[in-house]
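Morning. Coffee machine broken again, so started the prediction first thing and wrote up yesterday's gels while waiting. Chain of 270 residues, entered below exactly as on the submission form.
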Amino acid sequence: MSSFSVPADVDSLPASPTLSSTLQPVKLTALASRYSSGHWKPMHTEQKTLWPVLIYCRGGLGNYGGVNTSWIEQFVNYGYIVFAPAYRGNEGGEGRDEYGGSDLQDVVSAYQLVHGLPFADLSRISVMGFSRGAINAVHAAATYNKQPHGVHKLVLWSGVADVAQTYLERTDLRRTLKRILGHSPQRAPEAYTARSPLFKVTELHCPVLIMHGTADTQVKYSHGTRMYNELKRKGADVTFHAYGGENHHFHGAVQQTAISHMFDWLCTLS
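Came back before lunch.
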């Protein structure tokens, strides 16, 4: 039986300053919904209404994982514009997914793009990272961490906090991580540290929500608690939602409850 808890304590935007000048442009490829328009809930509004935005950073690597279009369609029912970049090298896009390398620019570019939407509320552009997407989401929030262009809120759902810890825990990913990052954490520590959200907490100035299942077998629960404790130690505005007995992906009513709690938090003024 799954349970939800909030523990009191737990174990004209500028270009990206670090990446954009060194990367080649990558073409955009549209990803259509797998549902027909008959599945969408129509939302009527005045033409001048400004909408909050959620940039959803997918998990996985390469063909494993992908943008979850059913999530997008659930999210928009909460009154948000949802933008889900498909990292380079995936889902028909050019380039190569580097698990938090040059693909970081794809989320930064998405953030810049939504700032150009005349119907977007520029004061409420939030970023959510699921699983490995936490790497990309944290980078975007760290890049745009100052007002008036700062990220409004950041959500890390079942998120990777420490890539070196992932290497140690996920023996099935070791060969892939060594290939993409150049070697093991012992031989290439800087590549793992650069990709790890845990080492960017001082650059996060927006409120952060961490959501994690206690029985996660893909990204251990300790990733969430370590990130929470480090943010707390730095005096950050951080909230932790623990889902008892849930694995990496939540299911059924628990999934719907988690989404509802997430948007309750996103919609709270802070």
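The first strand starts at residue 3 and ends at 5. Going to sketch it on the whiteboard this afternoon.
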